[in-house]
Every structure is written in C-alpha cells, then in structure tokens.
Write a structure and sequence with these properties.
Helix content is about 30%, strand content about 5%. The protein is mostly helical and about 70 residues long. The longest helix is centred in the last third of the chain and has 14 residues. It is elongated, with a radius of gyration of 26 Å. It has a two-stranded antiparallel ribbon. The chain contains 2 helices and 2 strands, in the order ββαα.
C-alpha cells in the first residue's frame, strides 16, 4: 500500500538512482447528487419549511413559462 500524504521513495537497485516525489493533497469529486427541487429542499432548506419543495416546483415552472425579461 502506497502512503498518500508522505513522500514516496523508489528503492534503488544496483547502480540505480534514488528518486523521490513530494507528496500533495488534492480535492477530488467522490460522488454526484442530481439537483432537482426535492434535493434542493432536502439539502438547502435551513428554515425547516415542509412545503419548500412544492414552492420551488412552482417557482421553477413560473421562470420557465416566462419568455424574456421586459426592460422599461
């Protein structure tokens, strides 16, 4: 097993060269959550509104029905 947070050393062979590489910590995406109104209500509803998903459905439908912004 190779350590992930320490420098990894290659074992030198006869008349070989010792090489090393500085370790690094990186962020990786380990999963994906589909974003819809019920997921948004579950994860981002800090107020605890039980009708939040229904309100998001209504709002999203209203935004999709609108053709273009009218500037006056």
């Amino acid at each position: 097993m190779t350590p992930t947070h320490e420098a990894v050393l290659a074992v030198p062979r006869r008349a070989g060269v010792l090489t090393c590489q500085k370790a690094s910590m990186q962020r990786v995406i380990t999963g994906w959550i589909a974003l819809d109104t019920s997921t948004a209500a579950t994860y981002y509803n800090a107020g605890g509104d039980s009708q939040y998903a229904r309100k998001l459905d209504y709002t999203l439908a209203a935004v999709r029905r609108r053709k273009a912004a009218v500037c006056r």
